[in-house]
Structure formats: C-alpha cells, structure tokens
Amino acid sequence: MAHESFEDEEIAGILNDKFIAIKVDREERPDVDSVYMRICQLMTGQGGWPLNVFITPDQKPFYAGTYFPKTSKFNRPGFIDVLEHLSETFANDRQHVEDIAENAAAHLEVKVHPAEGMLGEQAVHDTYRQLAGGFDTVYGGFGQAPKFPMPHMLMFLLRYYSYTGKEQALAGVTKTLDSMANGGIFDHIGFGFARYSTDNEWLVPHFEKMLYDNALLLTAYTEAYQVTGNERYRQVAMQIVTFIQREMIHEDGSFFSALDADTEGREGKYYIWSKKEIMDLLGDELGSLYCKVYNITDQGNFEGENIPNLIFTRREAILEETGLTGHELTERLEGARKKLLEARENRSYPHTDDKVLTSWNALMIAGLAKAAKVFHEPDFLSMAETAIRFLERHLMPDGRVMVRYREGEVKNKGFIDDYAFLIWAYLDLYEADFDASYLQKAKTLCTSMLDLFWDEGHGGFFFTGNDAETLLVREKEVYDGAVPSGNSAAAVQLLRLGRLTGDGSLIEKAEAMFSVFKREIEAYPSSNAFFMQSVLAYTMPQKEIVVFGSKDDPDRKRFIEALQEHFTPAYTILTVEHPSELAGISDFAAGYQMIDGKTTVYICENFTCRRPTTDIDEAMNTLQISSRA
After folding, report:
1. For the residues 418-426, what does the mean pLDDT come to?
2. CATH T-level assignment (fold) for domain 543-623
3. If both were cysteines, with which of 275, 298, 328, 394 could 324 make a disulfide (CB 3.0 to 4.6 Å apart)?
C-alpha cells in the first residue's frame, strides 16, 4: 500500500483533508501494533500487515482492516471508498461510531488469572506431541508453506531429547536444520538465512534477511552441533557469523535490523542468477561443476533464473562422477563462491534497515556468546562484548532500557522482551567467559524488569512498563511468534538466574507464571515452545556445578571447555578464581572453599552438594562428559 495508496496524490488529498494519518513502525512500537492487531482480529476475524485502523479522537478504534487496493477489486473494498464512507459516517452518525469504539475497547480487556495448579511434566510431553504432529517428515519444519524457521521450537526439541532420549525429537531437529541449510532459504553465496520459505521444500524464500532469524538460528545450529558433533552445523553457524560481520554490523559494533528482499523493484534480484551469467564468470569447467552441485539450469527455478541450492545434490555421486577428492571439491566450490560473491557485490544492493533494536541485538549477542563458547572463537566473544557495550552506553541511560537507536537518536522505553532478551544475553556472555560482572548485570536488570513489568495482582509480565504511555489496554503476551515472547524469555531467564544465584524468589516468580499462563499454554502448547523450555528445566533433574580455580590452571581449563562443548541444559555452571568473588552475586556458593589452592569442583543437585573434589577426571566421569579435543 505504500506505493499504491500512500504515495498516490488522490488518496493523500483525502487523508490530509479528512483524517490525521499516523504511520507506526511496528518494530519500534510493538505495543501499539499488538493492541491494534488484536482489534483487527476481533473486528474482522483475521490479522496481518499492512494494518489499517481508524480510531476516534480518544484513540478508540471503530474500523480495521489489512490490505485495501486503491479501488475496489479482488472482492476487497477500495481504499478510496473506505475513506469516503468512514468520513461520512463519522460526520453524520457520530454516536454509532462511538458505540462501536466503546464496544471494541470493552472486548479488548482480557484478564489473565492464575489457574488451579501449574504447568508440569504432562504439559512438556504435550508440547512435544503437538510439535511432532505438525512436523513435515519429508522436508522438515512445521506445517505447510509459507514455512518459517522457528528456531525456538527446535531449541525445545533439543532439550526434550536431552532429557528424555527421544530420538524422534532429535531427528526432527536435524531434518529441519539439514533441509534449511540445503535450501534456497540459505544464501549459499553470501551466507545468512532469509525470513521464510514460500514453498514446502525451503527452495524459494522471501528474500528479506532479519537479524533476529539469524541470531536464533546461530543458537540453534550451535546447540545442534553440541548434541550431534555434526561439522556441517558448525560450518553453518560460522557462515552466519561471517554474513553478520560483512553485512549486518555498524562501525560501532551494533547490529542492523534487516536487509530488504527487493532491489530495483524486483524481489530477490540481488540473489538470483542465470546459468549463462555463472558460466561466463566461472568458465566452462568450474562453471559446469558449480551448476551441477547447486542445481543451476537453463530453465531456472525462480522466474526463469536460479536460486543456488543443494536440495537435490548428492555429494558422493558428484565425487564419483568427477573423480575429485572431498577436499578438492570443497576448495573448488569455495573458489567459485568467492568469485560469484565478488560479482554480486557490484549489483544494486538491497536497502538496509540500519536502526539498532535492543531486543534483536540482544538475541545476536546471545548467539555469538554461545558460538564463542562452543567453538572456542574469541573473535565471536569480542563481537558480542562490543555490541553489549554499545547497548549499555546508548540504550540503557540511567538503567532504563530503551527500544531503538538510529543516528544518535534514542527512542521509546523498552518492553518486556527488551529486558528478558538482554538478561538472556548477559547470562550467555557469563557462560562464555565466566566474567562475574555479567552475572551481576543480569541480576540488576532482572530487579528492574520485575519492578517495571511484573503483575503484582495475578503474576506474569505486562508487555509495557508501569512508566509507559497509557494505551487502550496493558497487554500480557505469552504466545511465541517469529521470536519468543517476552514472558517466554523471562520465564527461562528467571530459572537460569535463580539457579545461578541461588535466589529462590526468582524461581518462585517462574512458578507463578506456570500457573497464570496454564490455560493458554495447555490449549496451544506448541505455540509456547520457548516458554515450555522453562517448564522442562523446572520439572527435570538439575545440577549446579561450582568450580573454583585459576584461569591459567590447565585442569580448570580442560574441565570448563569440556562442559562448554557439550549440550548440558540440565547443568548450571558457576566458576570464579576465588569464592569471595561470588559474594552478593551467588551467596549459596560464596561460602564454599578451595582445597589446597587447587582447582576444586562442587557438583550439586538442587543446591545440595556432594563432597568437593580436586580430581578433574573424577568430576568429568561423574558428569559423563569428555573433551572433544
């Protein structure tokens, strides 16, 4: 509608003459978007974007819809007709309009009250069963096209497998990750994932690249590597970071929000190729090899051109046919990729949404910290630390988190997801290098989150803070969308922080959430897969591992690196050089002692600890871990 209607002089004249038009960026103001999207769903039975809502002077909505063509077609009213009709009705039948608005506002008030009991192990298994029931066994992913990556669902399945040993859960994850990495949704020349696939096969994407998708997929591929040891997952994770470093990072170390799908008015133009273009660039021998591997044809697979992909590629058959070794094939394809990337960079580049969003940056910081930890990549940790320092400097003035930064301008008070995702980032930073200051920052931020967003009457977190602009309703969201909801992320981080610090009040807050959202989550458990990570962690046995010792001690280094390499969601790891460093941060562990100045390991369950040991091999055997090195 931006081009069809809002840049049209006739429509602009009507809008300016009879309405006050306000355009809202839903990424900067998700609170406004959420309230009015719910209105649209109540009024029309459906939602989506573009979202058009007409409100009275006191901000109460009386008409809503999504896409309107300029003139009536596709069985849709034309935008001109809608504007004229609403203007006339408002002028001639104001009371009717006011009645509609009052009724809509009344229906928007939805109270969430705690249910009897709370979510438990049965809900965990129900979540798995519902996810498994919607799984595409042929191509991976969930449901039918359009197919979104939904990495937080994969994260739940990895944890479910870790706790239960259910092989089908792991198979669902690996099938999905393999299919996406082979498909056109992954950019095989410049790396990074597009937003979603328009087909079941993951071949043709909507070419927009979002920071949050790549952040969450970085975490998912890293965790899948921890579970399986599959080098392909390490490779994809590293390629995501390469893409972020090259195309999604400001000079100051913060991260862009998105790259547009289209250039010069055509979606995907930057990313697609004719076979002739590839052959001309690479020459006959290398070009033929590249086209064979990446399924490039004269006919093309997208509007007469080609999206490189590996969907039908059988590497063993290509090795046999060409007589190349695996190393030779990899080297030649990498050389071809670099040539194609160099040529592509001369094309008109997609528009970059360069605003810095706190929540999405926090997700990328968390992903980078986890990848740094697992792959022992200090440069990834440096990227994450540079970004968190930027957020602290520009988007957390006086401790109050803000939503976005662009060209020196900071706007809008942060929402629950900004806080919950930042705590997530701090905890992953702590687990990457065990700098206790990150743990302290997570604690401080959690206190602010509870003060600003916690519902003292019924439990759970409101989307907006108690110092925010007053809207029609103060919403409390739990369902996950393309990213986990603020309440989902908060529940997970409350448990993590509670176990790291020994603060039982944080665990009690999570328990309250298991009650307040019980009805909603039991009705649609798979739509709350990230929230269910917290329930899974709560109901399954957990261990606290406390390690004291010098960072220079080879025994400590060997033990910590082995823990970091493995997928251990049941383990909470605290480590500092001396117990006194935990005073005021994790008091339950601050009273423990080192033995004879040696690296000392305490293995605890629900804060009840075994006899400490300085025998690192004994500790590793107890935890059933070993070094992959």
Report:
1. 99
2. Glutaredoxin (3.40.30)
3. 328
